[in-house]
Write a structure and sequence with these properties.
The chain is of the alpha+beta class. The chain is built from ten helices and 18 strands. The protein is elongated.
Amino acid sequence: MSIRVWCSGIFGLLVLSSGSAAVDPALLAKVHDWRRDFHQHPELGNRETRTAGIIAAHLQSLGLEVRTGVAHTGVVAYLRGTQERPLIALRADIDALPVKEDVDLPFASTAQTEFRGTQVNVMHACGHDAHTAILLGVASALAARKDTLKGSVMFIFQPSEEGPPEGEEGGAPLMLKEGVFAPPRKPDMVVGLHVFSTMNVGTVAVRPGPFMAESDSFKILVKGVQTHGSRPWGGVDPVLAAARIVDGLQSIVSRRVDITRSPAVVSVGAINGGIRYNIIPDQVEMIGTVRSFETETRDAIWDDIRLIAGKTAEANHATAEVSFAQHTRVTRNDVPLTERLRPALGRADGVESVVEFPASTVAEDFAYFADEVPGFYYFVGSTPKGVDATTAPSNHSPKFYLDEAALGIGVSTMLSVVEEAM
Ligand SMILES: [Zn+2]
Ligand SMILES: [Zn+2]
């Protein structure tokens, strides 16, 4: 966040190679202000009321057609250019995470709220504050030259990308359910970006085809018979059965998945059971995640988890109930669209290199939009130059730090992509 970087960001955008996408330095200053304001006032998924209010007010001030309260707190706006088509949807996610910020910033978050029955701190640890501010900047720039736009733009400010609170619907699937892509406003393409710690600022990355994993969660409830810890033969020990299940699950990816074709991950994230050193409990609950890039692989892994949990429990005289939930589908970049739009990233101001990103086992609910219309999603490096991006605190870390030069790059790349798409 040095003054030097800040200035290069402003003046660089004045000489955007495309010529027609020059951004007012005052607008870029506003993007920084928005991002700092959102950063200081983060809100969890489906609760982004303050954030949504600021977004809607600004979009209305630009004269856009604005719809609020979409999928709880989402905002969708429509900008008509000189012609209706192509209609390009630009999407930003607006939610934050239950993380206690540990970055020394004047606008660091001290926000707290209630989550899963406990009081938690809230932080924009995934950088969605940046995405929101960037898209507001892009909307402003495009609205200012709508009389020359050879197409129209839909701005999607999406709540709850990280997943809705338990028992609620949310995110991209709910926005679609509520008709965001319903005709006659079904867009011709959808574009999104994510700031990412593993690359230095100046680098952007993209990958055609499947590039982010499907994310599922599983729950295994192992049931035994409670007894005294000194007399295990008097009951059925679910702790031992659970331990053997955890061990067995690790044979799925190593022995069953063709990892030369498609990577996959099975991880157990929590085990809960028992209360005292001398009581064998009646049950143990385990939760975990599966990441995969193909439906076939996903189905086979689910089957193996059921099989291993069920048979291992049985061999230990216990029982296992297994359930799954799909959180996010595989995120795919449309291959022809990616080939067409990728050069536009390289032409955008502030971009020094465009690299091909390896397939990533993180997940992103942009996947649902990109399953409906051709999608183009890219990553914007956000770690300051001179800092080793491979060891920099990652997104979701309490120490996640975004170099604000990434904001200018976010705006310039999106404008360049829109120009190319039109
Ligand atoms: Zn995230
Ligand atoms: Zn994110």
